[in-house]
Design a protein that fits this description.
The complex is a heterodimer of chains A (567) and B (238). By secondary structure, chain A is of the alpha/beta class. Chain A has 13 helices and 22 strands. In chain A, strands 1, 2, 3, 8, 9, 10, 11 and 22 form an eight-stranded mixed beta sheet that branches. Helices cover 41% and strands 0% of the residues of chain B. The N terminus and C terminus of chain B are likely disordered. Classes of the chains: A alpha/beta (567), B mainly alpha (238).
Amino acid sequence: MATRLKETDVVVVGLGAAGGVAVLPLTQAGLDVVGLEAGTWLTKRDFAPDEIRNNVRDWPQSVQKAQQEVPTHRVNAKANTTRGGSHPMMNAVGGTTLHYWAQSWRLNPWDFKVVSETTRRYGASRVPAGSTVEDWPFGLDELEPYYDKVEYEVGVSGQAGNVKGAIDTRGNIFEGPRQRPYPMPPLRSTGFIDLMAAAARGLGWHPFAGPAAINSRTYQNRSACMYHGFCNKGGCHVDAKNSPSVTTIPRAQETGRLKVVTRAHVTSIDTDNQGKVTGVTYVTDGQEFIQPAKVVLLASYTYENSRLLLLSKSKAFPNGLSNNHGQVGRHYLSHAQGGSVTALFPFDINAWYGLPAQGVAVDNFADDNFDHGALDYVGGGNLWVMSDRRPIAAASMGTFGKTPSWGAEWKAFIKQNADRSNTSYLQKTTLPYEGNFLDLDPVVKDPLGFPVCRITADYKDNERRINAATQDKMIQWYKAAGAIATQANPLGTMGPTTHAYGGTRMGRNPETNVVNQWGFSHEAPNLGVLGASVMGTSGARNPTLTVQALAWRTAEYLTKNWKRVSS
Amino acid sequence: MADETKPGVSRRELLKRAGLAGAALTIPASALPGEAPPNAEAPHKGVPYEQAPRREPLENLTAAESDLLEAICARIVPTDATGPGAREARAAHYIDRALGGALASSRPAYTAGFAAFERYCRSSRGAPFLELSERDQDSVLIDVETGSATGFTSSSGAFFGMVRTHTLQGMFGDPYYGGNANFVGWDLIGYPGVRTNVTIDDQRLGAKVAPNHRSAYDYEMFTKASARLISKDHTHGD
């Protein structure tokens, strides 16, 4: 028998990157908020610099709810379905921001207007066939104040490239105008990063230090980064990584209006017969609770956002909550994060320490920053070179065909070359397509008996062409810096990933979008959705800062329109 | 894999000197893992390391499985002029211990793989792996690696890949887990060790950072609880 709890103003499902930020403007405006989190609190003592635990054994993701719900994947509706062993995200207060790379980019102006800008510059026929891409319901200018808010409230280090239209070549000259610089200077460089930046300048490109939600100096009384090398899939041992767990969530708690409930496994979002959301049901240690709320903000990850809506069937929503137009799960896309390039240098690059956010970016070939007139694709890739390596991964390096992969020759090779290899990170535009979507798996279930999310998705020609072109540029860059061998790694396919978008897309048209331009459901107006699941395009850069800016904006809209949304 | 070009005495030569080579050939072909004769562990070849390292009590493997695993690991990361190898790092010890925990789901694959491995050695080379010369051992391992070895449940290549992956974890992982003894793996590839603070000078090109030979858990601040919690078996992938 479920225990019915006292009603609250707002229940936030998931206290990760999105929900963990939204709770601050909500509670500061005087709303009572219950934050339901499937994971637990973790502290810096839990974040040992341990490659076996973090990277080999996937500790961050292995002990939590998400691990029981790994989505299945098939490349198209006729292909076989497979299931990997690991969910890319983790459950904890702060969610995956505990172990993420913390790269905190703003999208470029083009990302909001892919359809209209492509049509204007190259003609409507250049929008790839079969793509369901739409312009966002607003442009970068609408989101800018929220980017700014999050950069300062959470803490982002970086070098501005465009302050109110004034271009600064130390930053990204392609970024849209910002009202002021970052609150902290960028993370420091390294000898190898300096070398790569110089090579990029030699090619006539515009290298710059990327933005990161990591302290480059003491910020909000928390330490600067120690550059110790275990940020990748590891939490921060000095709280220099600005997860909501050490920034916005504690500040929301200080208002006295946020109740954090850990180990809460939400199983449904509940509605009345009129289609109004009444609260959520969750399970802790086998005990069921009903948490009534005037407004529900769904802020789990992209896969779980769609899954929970599809599982929340009711009289008013027989096909899943907010799915009477059949749009939940549609317009799914995930970053083409594969297709990296690895290089071998004839000298030690001293990259044993650092972090994935300590690096140099080139944006010249991203988005529409270059002329696509003679090309057969739209969009592009951001090139990123970083100082990030640990010993098992280093010893597991490829040998560029120079030796076998074990034995005496191999041993001599890695002894010489373990510190001479570097792998870049190339994030490329992915568009949504008709055949790429999320739904419920007809076979695989979680331990409670609920179907897991099924991904049906693969890259199309546009993504494959971007990948090839971006890898070519990266190879050119490495060679300019002195690399003696390079290897283009496979793009792969669209299985579960940390950069998953769509499923509850944001837009004015309820026929093609689940939430409106403010992030609230077209069909159930007191339901809001936070996360990359509302994003209709990916850009060529990490999603988290955009997710957080959108979450802040949706939360602020709620506080300013409380009566209308909650009644 | 060109053993002959390496300095030092061949393993076969050592076996001969120890009077074992002839005797070993008389071991019945039915001697599968679990039934290996005493003294089956051969002295390993190694220039700077005359003595085989101390072997820890086994936690999961049988004695014969352990002997075979030690020998395989020692060919994957041999002990030679470039420095200590998997034997000195105690990579097999790492695997033995992990098979009772994080790698428990791999135990059946090891059990079946060892048996198929020895059967294949006997049928294709006429002797157990431990009695083969290093050159022949390597040729067996190439068959297993490339998937051309017969008699394996799935593919022999999958078995090889698993053993290689775990050997590298035992060679280059944090010593807390029972491998990388005396930090020989980290020293081999020049990893200067786990630090909690890295300076700008430490990241310059040409900087020589002295190895500090510290495990993550030599730092008091970190709890070991989560390191013990893991129950997953996973290959490496950042």
